[in-house]
Amino acid sequence: LTRIRIIELLRKRPYNTNQLSKSLKMDYKTIQHHIKVLEDNKIITYEQKKYGTIYFTSQLFNQYMYIYDEIKKELKPEE
Predict the structure, then answer these.
(1) Do 17 and 35 meet the contact criterion of CB atoms below 8 Å apart?
(2) Are 55 and 9 in contact (CB under 8 A)?
């Protein structure tokens, strides 16, 4: 679910790791781990800025976003 939450934020606008950590109220290192997994799988990409790396969804993800949306519908939120 954490990766879905990250993707949902990045679909709206770019974030850096610190912003994601604060928005999701999660540990910075945890966010870093999930960012690395999403990056390795070409779901997100980044732009290096002077004061940090900004992440956003990749073109590949955007091209196949409909598949992600279908899968997300099938998932039941944890309660």
Answers:
(1) yes
(2) no
